[in-house]
Amino acid sequence: MIENLATTYNPKEFEDKMYKFWIENDFFKAEIDENKTPFTIMMPPPNVTGSLHMGHALQNTFQDVLTRWKRMDGYSALWLPGMDHASISTESRVVNKLKLEGISKDDLGREGFLEEAWDWTHKYGGTIKNQMKKIGVSCDWSRERFTLDEGLTHAVEEVFIRLYEKDLIYRGDRIINWCPNCMTAISDAEVDHEDKKSNIWHIKYPIKDSDEFIEIATTRPETLLGDLAIAVNPKDERYETLIGKTAILPLMNREIPIIADDYVDIEFGSGAVKITPSHDPNDFEIGERHELGQCIIMNEDATISKEGGKYEGLDRFEARKKVVDDLKELDLLVQIKEHDNSIGHCERCETIIEPLISKQWFVKMEDLAKPALEAYKNGEVNFIPERFGGVYTHWLENIRDWCISRQLWWGHRIPAYYCDDCEEIIISRTEPEKCTKCGSTNLTMDEDTLDTWFSSALWPFSTLGWPEETPDLDYFFPTDVLVTGYDIIFFWVVRMVFSSIEAMGEVPFKDVVLTGLIRDELGRKMSKSLDNGIDPLEVIEDYGSDALRFTLVTGGTPGNDMRFSYERVEANRNFANKLWNATRFVLMNLDEHVAKEQLNMEDLEEEDRWIISRMNTTIKEVTRNLENYDLSLAAGRIYDFTWDEYCDWYIEMVKSRLYGQDEKSKETAEKVLLFVLENILKLLHPFMPFITEEIWQHLPIEADALIVSDWPKYDENLIYEESEKAIEYIKTAITRIRNARAEMNIIPSRKSEQIFVSKDKRIRGVLKSGEQYFKDLASADNIKILESKDDIEGETISIVLEKSEVFLPLDELIDYGKEKERLEKEKERLQEEIERVDRQLSNKGFVNNAPEKLVNEEKAKKEKYENMMENVLERLDSVKEKL
Asked: How do 229-232 and 272-275 pair as beta strands?
């Protein structure tokens, strides 16, 4: 006895159970198998502090589709999961938690704070992992990594030390991006620039011992307090006589030189710029060239330092207002202009960042960037879509040294030790006992940690055991594809490429597939301020994981944003329901002994050959789409084949055989139904894993779990072109007949004779073979196939097909009494509409005062109703003649 599925499709009844089944059987675990080709994807590690959002759901579904497909296709497929320690985000959350308890970070000290951070991580860090399981990720949890685990920490220290030994890491005073809220340096990639309306202030600087002034323009007047020079272009004739002279710094009354530097743009503003080496990256470079020194006028909390004189202690924006007011009072403010300005914000907390000179650790990027650029130009790394290669190239061609130190405690501590006596810097894998220069034992370890992206950059190889030469590293590296968002090409992708080339001598992956953003139905970015965010777990709760997954993969193409709508989720849940009900039909009509017998291709009938041929073409197209990372096209093709060709056509076509007396024909139909269903489940499994596995477990077949079944292969011997042509012709004819009947409001149960006329012998043969289809699917009770229409009698409607025509006798289709009644009602309705429009158009107040567009709409309605009335009256006269 074949066990059927539950009567209704309810994903809650089996999705969690199915995930447990996969886990318990180690189906996600990748094995080193020299007889198989490896396929490797590294999961972009989500922040340990995070919870699942739609972006995660999209990227993880995309990766899961590829992994499940490759696993079925015979590869040893490793999808390695993990978490990122998210230094700034985690530390911020722990600090806020402690603040609520009345405890500060400094109260606890470093070790006490790290204990709190680890406790917090263990308590909340597993949230996103459990949420990812809800969407069905088939990653190898036995190989899960965390960026702060022992192995990865060893890898991070090793890379730091090797780069330092190659003189590619250095410590120095440079301008960095400083977040006054997070109280740490951040890299260029962690700064979000936002275009805002701002001001530009034009200020006069007096020239010493003269009545002259030189005018400069600035968007940050408070930094004037730290000016050390004014620069002009040496070719600017306006300032030839001023070069080498001295200006008086307004408000501070400090003498500063007027210098010449080619960096200054003659055409921009007044052609003279203030130079503040400690608070602007370009000014820093000019200051270095002219040995201007430094003057830091801002503290780390963005208040003015003691170098700012009477402004000391003011917040930077309070100081700005006070400086501007004082300049006005001294008549040194020339004008204030509105200005479009791109203002940098910390991507974590959205605080406006402050360029600040600071002693930090940096990676020299020039020598690392070159091979990463060459790898792309040589085709070693491919971007999908291709246009994002330009973003990658631009970033590498314009890259600056990477600030990697962070003033945080949570993270990988920099393996640097300072001698308290001679200031020697010692970089060591283990804690040194004494100074290598003076022998002192008074050593202090660097307090700072490394940028989170420093450890993430090593993810593709550190997770496989590097720097040790592990079997996993040897077999699974390099990886095959990275799936990530287009917004972190420079954060992460670039850094992984140059880190891998440096450490491993090759690129970390062949292909980079970039997903877009998920927007709401109106195309807006999801955000807290708009309150338009959608929780994927709520969608799963209401519709099931498969419906959400299918919605995400069919919503767009790589690199393009997609709009999320519940309407599409519901449509995809309906698709799952359609498959469920189709399976129930197949199982109800399947004899157990038939299910165990081999399908004999010699026994196939026309519709069997057609569906198998269409299935075979679908296999070819879906596989090609997956190879091109076109998951949306692949899923759409499976959807169309399953819903339209298998459910709506083939199942309907074979019903008469299933219920008929021809046992051989019946058994063949049963076998084909099962054979095609098996292949549908295989093709659909990577996209909708839960429902397909649940159905598979109910099929009367002797096979392993669907997740480890063989991916269908295209077989050119199963392409039946003539059968496809014949069935497609019949489908077109049936569709046209149905449409014509629907237009005449003829119910499907009212049958009639159908007369086909064609001079083409082949077409007549096709129509003859399809007689049963027309009876079952087009409401025919008798079929005639003629060469000429001369012998057709009575009133008919005709439907024109390619090389044939169908005639439907009206006398058999229409109940003239009921038709007369219907037409009389339609006549009354139209009369009422015409009278209403006439009243409106005869109202002078409406005609003279209403918008012209509205008046014209009413006139158009009158014309439409009158034409409809003419047709109804004509049809009514024709019907009355029949009575």
From this structure: antiparallel
pLDDT in tens, 812-837: 787 778 778 878 888 998 999 999 99
The candidate with the shortest Cα–Cα distance to 96, out of 125, 120, 126, 128, is 120
76 — phi, psi (to 5°)?
Answer: -85, 95
Distance CA 816, CA 824 (A): 12
What's residue 529's pLDDT? 63
Query: Which pair of structure tokens corresponds to residue 668?
Result: 């063949």
Residue 187 carries which side chain, given as an amino acid letter? S
Burial code (b: 16+ CB inside 10 Å, e: under 16) for 162-197 equals ebbeeebbebeebbbbbbbebbbbbbbbbeeeeeee
Q: Helices then strands (H, E): number in the chain?
A: 30, 29
Q: DSSP assignment of 719-773, as one string?
A: --HHHHHHHHHHHHHHHHHHHHHHHTT--TT--EEEEEE-S-HHHHHHHHHTHHH
Q: Where are the beta strands (DSSP E) in 261-380?
A: 272-275, 333-346, 354-363
More confident residue, 269 or 505: 505
Helices of type H across 330-458: 366-377, 389-397, 452-456
Q: What is the pLDDT of residue 528?
A: 61
- In tens, the pLDDT along 542-601 reads 999 999 999 999 977 787 888 888 999 999 999 999 999 999 999 999 998 888 888 999
CB 32 within 8 A of CB 76: yes
825 close to 782: Cβ distance less than 8 angstroms: no
Q: Can you tell me which residue has the tokens 């076109």? A: 630
DSSP character string of 72-122: HTT-EEEEE-EEB--HHHHHHHHHHHHHHTT--HHHHHHHHHHHHHHHHHH
H or E segment and range at residue 546: helix 545-553
CB distance 609 to 654 below 8 Å? no
What 3-state DSSP class applies to 878?
helix
| Region for residue 738 given its phi and psi (left: phi exceeds 0; alpha: psi -120 to 50; beta: otherwise) | alpha
Beta-bridge partners for 360 = 172
The pair of three-digit structure tokens given for residue 581, joined into one six-digit string: 């009900």
Q: Which distant-in-sequence residues (6+ apart) come within 8 Å of 558 by Cβ? A: 384, 385, 513, 514, 515, 516, 629, 630
C-alpha pair distances (Å), 401 with each of 67, 171, 172, 329, 363: 37, 11, 11, 42, 6
- The region that residue 379 occupies, defined by phi over 0 for left and psi between -120 and 50 for alpha, beta otherwise, is left
697 half-sphere exposure, CB direction, 13 A CA radius = 13
Q: How far apart are CA 10 and CA 106, in angstroms?
A: 53
pLDDT digits (tens, 9 = 90+) for 290-321: 999 999 999 999 999 999 999 999 999 999 99
31, pLDDT greater than 70: yes
